[in-house]
Amino acid sequence: MTRFETTGPRRSAFGQGISRSPSPVVATVVPHASILVASMLVLLPIIASAPVMPPVGFMMMLAWRLVRPGLLPVWAGALLGAFDDLFSGQPFGFGIMTWSMSMLIVEGIEARFPWRGFFQDWLVSGVIVASYLIVAAFLAGGQHIGAHLVAIVPQLLLSVLMFPIFSLMVSALDRFRLRPIRATS
Amino acid sequence: MVPPSNRRGGYSRRAQYSVFTGYMLAAIGALVGAILLVVSLIHPAAFSGLRGVASDLGAPVGKAGAAGRAGTQKTINTVSGFIRMGTQNAKLREENEIARVRLAEAKAVAQENKRLKALLGLDDGDLKPVARARLIGSTASSTRRFAYLSAGSSDGVKPGMPVRSARGLVGRVLETGADSARVLLLTDTESLVPVRRAKDNVVAFAEGRADGTLRLRLVNLGINPLRKGDVFVTSGAGGLFQPGTAVAVVTSVTRDGAIANLLSDPTSTDFVVVEPIWQPEAQALVSGKPLVSTQDGPAR
Q: What does chain A look like in DSSP terms, one character per residue?
């Protein structure tokens, strides 16, 4: 917990921390904004002729949920998923359903195994992302589901392996989110 | 690490209620999502207005990114071209000589074609493109293959219009926003394009396989005449796509057709052209209007 270490009388690890507190606006906006931006990353100039990119928005939400439990409310999946549906190319409603269900599933797993470490988080996210992608292939609304399933294999492996990177990004954003920038009176 | 135990609200009635409400809202969210999903699977065009607004919103970012992509590719090409300069130069010179001869021949053929058409009384002018635009993004994480285009209904783009690059067909417009449009790429599994072999008239359907390749299905079954390296162009059947636009080249032959690679790979496509629908009757069919309202056909 480096957050509370101080390197001097007026300095913490985050600069001039004394009589400062994190801004509540930044603290709530950063997690949600990072997920929304991640959902919009499909507008990046990668024109793919096959599905190659991990579901970035979904993985970002999952990472926030697993790395920082108790921050996103259980019902946040519905709204964030609706936004993702506007860009993802899946039929509208897919994100609303699967993101809400994932939030409920993580909640259930957490109630069952409250003490958990990084590798358990990785396992949970891997299983959830893999099933998300397979369900996505079935409910994408195209023809030839078999072709879809073959096409997602590289993307699936990449997505499972990317969780540590997402959790690192989330913890960096979390430190940024809780920087003491507001003067307390 | 143990999670904060805000799950149990302790003795506070209010905290207990708010936890319960959270679970209820999440469950209702999942249910509403499922209903919306069924609706949009049955009517894929439902909610297209919402998506149009959203992609309009993101279009400026995508445009900036697309310019950056073109720049990066140019740099990489410059560097790799520098390394292979000598051999490539000789090869290109040779190709250029051949191409010049072929061009002269093609001009003669075009002349003859024009003369013969005039003789038959066929009026077949070139279609004037509706808009020039950039591909600004694609649904890279979904198995559906859509791309976003930086031109929309305010530029005259309408659903059904073919989208092509200098190398060949890219796809067709599916939904339009004001300044952006959603394009169904050829590799999507819903995409089906009538094609014919460029050198003769072996007709086939090119359907997407979601993994970047196309499956060519021959219309006339029998002995499979396809060979590796055969080029396929649009046949014009159905009236959407102008005949003669390059589509794909065969990479491997299967029992009832072939697997083909796209000629105009959207990954390396910078600018694309939106063309009007070839036959106005097909436009009426696509937009679901009766056949009489065909005044917005192609400029001839």
A: -GGG-BSSSS-BTTBS-TTEEE-HHHHHHHHHHHHHHHHGGGGSS---SS--S--HHHHHHHHHHHHSTTSS-TTHHHHHHHHHHHHHSSPTTHHHHHHHHHHHHHHHHHHH--S--HHHHHHHHHHHHHHHHHHHHHTS--S-HHHHHHHTHHHHHHHHHTHHHHHHHHHHHHHHHT-EEEEP-
